[in-house]
Amino acid sequence: MRTKPVQRDPLAARVLDKLGDFATVTPARFAIAVFATLVALFTVLFSLPVATSSGMRAPFVDALFTAISVICVTGLSTVDMATYWSPFGHVLVFVGVEIGGIGVLTVASILGLVISRKLGLRQKLLAASDANPLRIRRGPVSEGQAVRLGETGNLLATVAVSVLVIELAVAALIFPRLLIAGTPWPTALWESIYFSAMAFTNTGFSPAPEGILPFANDWWFLGALMIGVTFGAIGFPVIYVLKKNLRHPHRWSLHVKLTLITFALLLLGGTIAYFTLEWNNPDTMAGMGLGDRILNSLFLSSMTRSGGFSTVDMGHLDGSSLLVTDMLMFVGGGSASTAGGIKVTTLAILFLAAFAEARGNDDMEAYGRRIPADVLRLAVSVVLWGATIVAAATITIMFINDDAPLDYVLFDVISAFATCGLSTGFTQSASEPTQYILAATMFFGRIGTVTLAAALAASIRRQLFRRPEERPIVG
After folding, report:
1. Would you state the pLDDT for residue 151?
2. If you write DSSP's letter for every residue of 350-409 in order, what string do you get?
3. Contact yes or no for 95/221 (Cβ under 8 A)
4. Per-residue pLDDT tens for 70-107?
5. Which pTM was predicted?
6. pLDDT of residue 250
7. b/e for 142-163, b at 16 or more Cβ within 10 A?
8. CA dihedral 361, 366, 369, 371 (to 10 degrees)
9. What keywords sit in the KW lines (predicted)?
10. On the CB side of 401, how many CA atoms lie within 13 Å of its CA?
11. Phi/psi zone of residue 306: left (φ > 0), alpha (ψ -120 to 50 degrees), beta?
């Protein structure tokens, strides 16, 4: 018996085709549009009376700020996240950070892969633009990178599996520790899953009013959180390559090597800095033993990469430690990860460029590979756009709040931009206009400075001529 083909509505078909063309031709603008739509949807949901524990409608600024913080996996909040929201509200938080952490375009591609059992070129391009910022611009892209376009389907499968496996593994580590602490098993089950999701997505929200302070000296609990944060922060392309060639480092791409080396150096450097600078601080680590100081220094260095959890009051850190934290948060984690910041590979490229210039080399080289000049231009653009966003937000907030301390304002602004979530307490006590500025900073920080620039620039303009060369004085 022959079945008639399903007739598509002409208007709906045209709308879907237009959306598909828009998504494929300008994935940067499409990503921003989808992020904005999700923020609007979650703002409405958080505004519902059923979303709050009091049954009252949340103020618009709190609903909007929470929606952006959740979708952008930041971790900053204007309310007490553990007590203000109802169980329905916490489910919204959980679902939102999973979507925001993985990436909107990646989630859409995974759903398409599950439904259709195949991945077309359009879906591959969308997913690839989430995994490689170089692809958000129109024109050819070199395939000499961590993940090639033909491997996009395998990368999506790795994303889906790694999210499930890593979060379940971290939850399995946390669950017995909560039971030992006397938490009833239903609550322990929910909190372990919640903590694992917040760790892997680098969000940092806590389901308990006391946060993680009861486990401030617990190597097992804090170690589990650090594992989740690290796997989320190194990036899905790195996880994909390590899954294939874990025992064969010579097969690792340059991206993977730069990410792991720079990530490890910053983690070690941050640990040493906090251990040294907070040694005599009576408000943080002065009363701790040697082992606890090492643990908390390592944990703080790990969380400043975008994790957002904290065992100490960030407002009590020494001024020098606040500055170290600012720098670590601004750098953030790996590309195509759940972490924010300008990314560790961006920092590595800048150092390689400076090293090549000091040696008088025309090309940047690392591990036997040459890095093209357009990657350096992109790295410089990322840093300049990021610094501009941070500077503009800080200046505006300082203008609105004359008596606000600069180090606290700068700290929370960088935390918002880098979607880190650590706070000195300034965000929650700030005025509504200030909270709106911080919300915008979170949004621009999460969608990425490269994506923002590409969305504004529509496409690369091809210039068929070159102007005469002249060298300005630099330095």
Report:
1. 55
2. HHHHHHHHHHT-SSEEETTEEEPHHHHHHHHHHHHHHHHHHHHHHHHHHHH-TTS-HHHH
3. no
4. 998 999 999 999 999 999 999 999 999 988 887 655 55
5. 0.86
6. 86
7. eeebbbbbebbbebbebbbebb
8. -60
9. Cell membrane, Ion transport, Membrane, Transmembrane, Transmembrane helix, Transport
10. 22
11. left
User: What residues contact residue 206 under an 8 Å CB cut-off, 6+ apart?
Assistant: 81, 82, 195, 198, 212, 309
Amino acid identity, position 76? L
d(CA 249, CA 241): 10
- The continuous run of DSSP H or E covering 46 comes out as helix 27-47
Can you tell me the distance from the alpha carbon of 281 to that of 322, in angstroms, rounded to the nearest whole number? 13
- Residue 118 to residues 19, 113, 157, 240, 241: CA-CA distances in angstroms? 20, 5, 12, 19, 22
**Which residues have C-beta within 8 Å of that of residue 318, sequence separation ≥ 6?**
277, 278, 281, 284
Report which of 453, 452, 389, 402 is spatially closest to residue 431, judged by C-alpha positions.
Answer: 402
Burial readout 268-293 (b: 16 or more C-beta within 10 A, e: otherwise): eebbebbbebbeebeebbeebeeebb
Which residues, in sequence order, are bridge partners of residue 370? Answer: 365
Which residue(s) pair with 366 in the sheet? 369
Beta-carbon contacts of residue 393 (< 8 Å; ≥ 6 apart): 413, 416, 417, 437, 438, 440, 441
User: Which residue positions in the chain have pLDDT lower than 50?
Assistant: 1, 3, 6, 108, 110-131, 135-144, 149-150, 458-459
The pLDDT, as a whole number, for residue 340 is 86
Where on the phi/psi map is residue 309: left (φ > 0), alpha (ψ -120 to 50), or beta?
Answer: beta
- Report domain extents, the chain: 17-126+153-458
Task: Find the distance separating the first CA and the last CA of the chain, reported in whole Å.
Answer: 79
Q: How many CB atoms lie within 10 A of CB 73?
A: 31
According to DSSP, residue 143 is labeled S
